[in-house]
């Protein structure tokens, strides 16, 4: 089988995330804890949530985010394109089309 998988980086954030994940109590969070390291998908989901939060922060700083108000798709997409940070899976940056500039392994 030939396919692609997103490449992952190891940095301070990813090491801190993994240490925190492994320290969680599996009785409280069954998928975490010392014997359940975070999956690749967990890392991606974490970065997705942080990406959305950073886009909201950007919109708030520009006065374009208000609770109980709808954000147009165009404004939301523009904010996401401008989000850039070092995530726990990789460096998060989007191109002009809104596609993640990801590294892939074959």
Brief sketch in words of this structure:
With 106 residues, the protein is mostly helical. The chain contains three helices and four strands; from the N terminus they run E-H-H-H-E-E-E.
- The structure class reads mainly alpha
For this structure, the CATH topology is Rossmann fold
The CATH first-level class comes to: Alpha Beta
Described by the principal axes of the CA atoms, the overall outline is globular
Strand order of the largest sheet: 1-4
What characteristics describe this protein?
mainly alpha; two-stranded antiparallel ribbon
What would your notes on this structure say?
It is a single chain. The chain has helices at residues 12-23, 40-61, 73-82, and strands at 5-6, 84-86, 91-93, 104-105. With 106 residues, it is mainly α. It has one domain (5-105): Response regulator (Rossmann fold), CATH 3.40.50. It has a two-stranded antiparallel ribbon. A two-stranded antiparallel ribbon has the order 2-3.
What's the structural blueprint in terms of helices and strands?
Elements lengths: L4 E2 L5 H12 L16 H22 L11 H10 L1 E3 L4 E3 L10 E2 L1
Antiparallel strand pairs: 1-4, 2-3
Helix pairs in contact: 2-3
């Amino acid at each position: 089988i030939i396919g692609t998988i997103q490449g992952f980086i190891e940095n301070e954030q990813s090491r801190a995330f993994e240490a925190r994940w492994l320290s969680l109590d599996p009785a409280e969070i069954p998928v975490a804890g010392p014997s359940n390291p975070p999956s690749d998908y967990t890392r991606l989901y974490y970065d997705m949530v942080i990406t959305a939060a950073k886009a909201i922060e950007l919109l708030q700083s520009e006065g374009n985010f208000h609770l109980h108000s709808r954000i147009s798709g165009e404004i939301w997409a523009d904010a996401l394109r401008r989000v850039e940070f070092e995530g726990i899976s990789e460096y998060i940056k989007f191109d002009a089309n809104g596609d993640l500039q990801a590294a892939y392994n074959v």
